[in-house]
Design a protein that fits this description.
mainly alpha
Length: 77
């Protein structure tokens, strides 16, 4: 058995281990961690606004007037 044959047998295993180490380092998020990790893709950073903070009204939105009226009725409901 040659060295090349042994290397070809272990190469896929080494690639998988290297990929796993790369993913684990990415999940750590580098210095300080934070929300940049690979597993944070499903976490929302949305913020709730109070009614006094609403800045966009139906008058500000361009579009079909009938559709805006129907959506306005849903909002009022």
């Amino acid at each position: 058995i040659s060295f090349g044959a042994i290397l070809m047998n272990f190469l896929p295993v080494l690639l998988i281990i290297g990929f796993w180490i790369f993913i684990m380092r990415q999940m750590q998020g580098g210095a300080g961690g934070g929300a940049k990790g690979a597993m944070s893709f499903g976490k929302s950073r949305a913020k709730l606004q109070g009614e006094d903070q609403v800045k966009v009204t139906f008058a500000d939105v361009a579009g079909c007037d009938e559709a805006k009226e129907e959506v306005g009725e849903l909002v009022d409901f």
